[in-house]
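chain below, 128 aa
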Amino acid sequence: MPLGTVIHNIEITLGRGGQLARAVGVIAKLIAKEGKPATLKLPSGEVRLISKNCSATVGQVGNVGVNQKILVRGVVTNPIDHPHGGGEGRAPIGRKKPATPWGYPALGRRSRKRNKYSDNLILCRQSK
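prediction:
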């Protein structure tokens, strides 16, 4: 594949099937092909090394319009549905920090395990 090719449904490990860039309308780009691994830029902004032998599909995932989902703000929900919900009128969140619908901190919390075996395959972490 030439450099800059748009791909999706990428295998991380040979023979395990596509695991990266599988959502609707998502793409990854082939940046470099030096040596054994190829360098990919993923939709999250992460730059990662992947074996050249792993398979991928050329092009963008179709059905882009399906991704347009109505988003309800947590503040306008009931307290049973979201930690920000409830109150009379336009009430504040009522917590020190914003939370996810499951009660975890919404800002600043990293979810990736430390010292994971694949850390050496990630060249650049996600850019927000």
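The chain has a mean pLDDT of 90. Residues 70-114 form a domain with the Ribosomal protein L2; domain 3 fold (CATH 4.10.950.10).
thats it, cya
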